Amino acid sequence: MQEQKTVWTILKILQWTQQYFQSKGVENPRLDAEVLLCAVLDKSRIQLYTNFDEPLEEQELKQYRGYVARRAAREPVAYILGHKGFLQYDFKVTKDTLIPRPETELLVEQLVSLNRDRGPVRILDLGCGSGAIIDSLLAELPEARGMGVDISPGAAAVTRENAQSLGVGDRLETVVSDLYEKVPREEKFQVLVSNPPYIPEGDLAGLQAEVHREPRRALDGGRDGLDFYRRILRDLWSYLDPEGMAAFEIGQGQGEDVARLCREAGLDCVKVRKDYGDMDRMVFAAKGGTVYGNAILEIKGR
Q: Where on this chain does substrate bind (predicted)?
């Protein structure tokens, strides 16, 4: 008598995957199961729920099982699928880049608000990674031009590719450089932005398994997490227009320290803004008496 073959429907495979992910310590087991299955079947999550009884074909099962094995090994979903949503855009991500976070969207949105009526500003993004910040800013500010800088050739290439996808490649220059090392000094930037490595080195071991899959040099901020802020601000005025502004993403508990470093660098109008979790997450700074300085003082924050 021939053994009956298991029929894996959408509902059945989701239920099994959810339990399997739970056993492996995956934080959002049902959501991740659904997102991966959506990618395999080219369906929305709503379509999964309206087609629970639909059986998977053998090739679909094979691809899905491969995704599930990678996720169970704590590889981030964004790396498995090769892309991540950010604002209304879709960004390619690779293991050369950090995965864009929702908190960084707030940084971009505030910068867009500060620059919407500024005309053809030049923007420098130090540590551009996937290009989520600089590419989104250029997409939202059609007169702006920008430079994305990253020490990783792979990350700079991804920034360039995402810029082309967003239709802003003609307004973006990418440079492989350790911060300012290869950035020309001839023409100053009106906006400097950075989401630098800011995790104190002593905290790295305690990060989630998924975060350990991301580039360590994009995470390690040195002993106190502030090394890159010091380096950026030390040489700031060789590259930033005296009337310009700086904006940083920061880590937990770093608001006061980064604000102090900004003031010591001559940026005396400083505001710290919180993220969705009511944690200090962004610092905006400019010289007093400038247009940017006045605008930054009006930001809700402290």
A: 195-198
**What is the Cα 108 distance to its own chain's centre?**
10
| Amino acid at site 188 | K
pLDDT digits 0-9 by tens, 159-208: 999 999 999 999 999 999 999 999 998 889 999 999 999 898 888 888 88
Compute CA 179 distance to the chain's CA centroid, rounded to the nearest angstrom: 18
Tens-digit pLDDT profile for residues 26-76 = 999 999 999 999 999 999 999 999 999 999 999 999 999 999 999 999 999
Together in a domain, 176 and 36: no
130 is in an annotated binding site: yes
Please check whether residue 174 is in contact with residue 128, taking contact to mean a CB–CB distance below 8 angstroms: yes
- Residue 200 marked ligand-binding: no
Q: Does the annotation list 148 as a binding residue?
A: no
pTM for the model stands at 0.92
Same domain, 206 and 61: no
Summarize the confidence of residues 72-96 as an average pLDDT.
96
Q: In sequence order, which residues have a C-beta less than 8 Å from that of residue 246 and are 6 or more positions away?
A: 191, 192, 193, 232, 233, 236, 240, 262, 267, 284, 285, 286
Q: Going by C-beta distance under 8 Å and a sequence separation of 6 or more, which residues neighbour residue 62?
A: none
The pLDDT value recorded for residue 217 is 82
Q: Is 131 annotated as a binding residue?
A: yes
The label of the residue with tokens 């599930």 reads: 68
Residue 77 belongs to a domain? no
Ligand-binding annotation for 49, yes or no, is no
Question: Would the annotation count 44 as a binding residue?
Answer: no
CA-wise closest residue to 243 among 114, 112, 108, 105: 114
Q: Which domain holds residue 261?
A: 86-296
